[in-house]
Predict the 3D structure of the following.
Amino acid sequence: MCSTRRRTRILLAASAAVAALAAPVGITVAGRTGTGAPAPAAPTPEPSGAECRTSVQGSRVVAYCHNPYPSTDRVQLHTECRRWWDIDADATPVDVKPGQTVRIDDRCWKEIGAVWVTHRVQGSV
C-alpha cells in the first residue's frame, strides 16, 4: 500500500510539472494566432453638438450655446434650486442650427444649486 501512495504522489507531481511547463507555450501559441492582420481601426465619430457656457448671478442663470457644426443640436437648460421648497426648472428645448448662437435663461426664487445643459443632436444637414 505504501508503494501505491508513493506512485500516486509521483504521478501528481509529474502532472503538475508538465502543466506548469505547457501553460506558457499554450498562451504564446494562442497569442500568435490573431497577429496575422491588424485589427481594423474604430470609426471616429463626426464632431457635433453645441458648446454651451453658463453664467449664474444670484438667482438667475443664463446659458449661451453656439453650434459650429453642420448638424442641428437641440439644447435644454436645467436649473436645480438650492432651497428644498424652491421649484427646480427645465427650460423649453431650443434648436441650435449650424453657425447659430442661442441664449437661454432661467431663475430660482433664491439661490441656484446646480445648472447643466443637455444636448440631442438632430443629424446632418
